[in-house]
Design brief:
The protein has 191 residues and is an alpha+beta fold. Helix content is 44%, strand content 19%. The protein starts with a helix and ends with a helix.
C-alpha cells in the first residue's frame, strides 16, 4: 500500500518515469541547533516587551497614546512569541506538507504551506550532494553548494521559503545513508 508521499509524488511523474524512493521529513516539533540562540532571545525579547507594555499602562498619558503604544508593543510581543516557539509550529506545519522523491531522472521536492511548490533537480546535472547524518541514522541530504551559515542557522532553511535562506535538500529524513546511496546509484544510471 503506497504511503502519502508516494501517492502525491506519483501524480507529478512523467508517464515513463520510474519512482525509486519517496518520503517525508520527520514530523512534529523538531529542535535544531539554531534553537540554542532563538529560544533564549525570544524569551528575553518577550519578557522585555511585556515589561514595556506594563510601563505604558502605568504612564500618565491620554488613552489614544496608550492604545497606540500597546498595539505596537503587542506586535513586538507576537514577534517574540514567534521566536520563542511559534516558528517551531510553522516548521512542523511546513514539514507535514513536504514530500521528497528520487526517480530514475530527478530529485523531487514538493513543499509549501499555502501553495504547493514543485522543485525538480535533474540527476544528470547535479554536481554537489552533501550527506549530514546523526548517530541515530537520520539526517539531511543537500543538493548543490551548501553555504557555511546553513549549518549554524539550520532552522532558517525551511522548505518552500525560497530566497537567500533556501537550500535544496531532503531535510530530517530517516535512514538517510540508504537514501543517499540510492541517489548516487540513480545518478550513475542516469549518466
Amino acid at each position: 500500500m503506497p504511503n502519502a508521499a508516494e501517492t502525491i509524488i506519483r501524480l507529478k511523474l512523467d508517464a515513463d518515469e520510474r519512482l525509486i524512493w519517496s518520503g517525508q521529513p520527520k514530523q512534529g516539533i523538531q529542535l535544531q541547533l539554531a534553537d540554542v540562540f532563538f529560544i533564549p532571545v525570544g524569551l528575553f525579547w518577550t519578557t522585555f516587551m511585556i515589561f514595556a507594555a506594563i510601563a505604558i499602562i502605568g504612564q500618565e498619558a491620554d488613552l489614544g497614546s496608550k492604545i497606540f503604544g500597546l498595539i505596537v508593543i503587542g506586535l513586538f510581543i507576537l514577534f517574540g512569541l514567534f521566536l520563542l516557539g511559534g516558528r517551531l509550529w510553522v516548521d512542523a506545519a511546513l514539514r507535514r506538507r513536504t514530500y521528497y522523491a528520487v526517480t530514475d531522472r530527478r530529485i523531487i521536492i514538493i513543499s509549501g504551506l499555502l501553495r504547493q511548490k514543485l522543485q525538480s533537480i535533474f540527476l544528470r546535472t547535479l554536481s554537489d550532494i552533501t550527506l549530514t547524518e546523526t548517530r541515530g541514522g537520520d539526517g539531511t541530504i543537500s543538493f548543490g553548494p551548501v553555504p557555511l551559515w546553513y549549518y549554524c542557522w539550520y532552522g532558517l532553511g525551511w522548505p518552500g521559503m525560497g530566497g537567500a535562506f533556501s537550500v535544496s535538500c531532503f531535510r530530517l529524513i530517516d535512514r538517510v545513508r540508504e537514501v543517499y546511496n540510492l541517489i548516487l546509484q540513480a545518478q550513475r544510471a542516469a549518466s
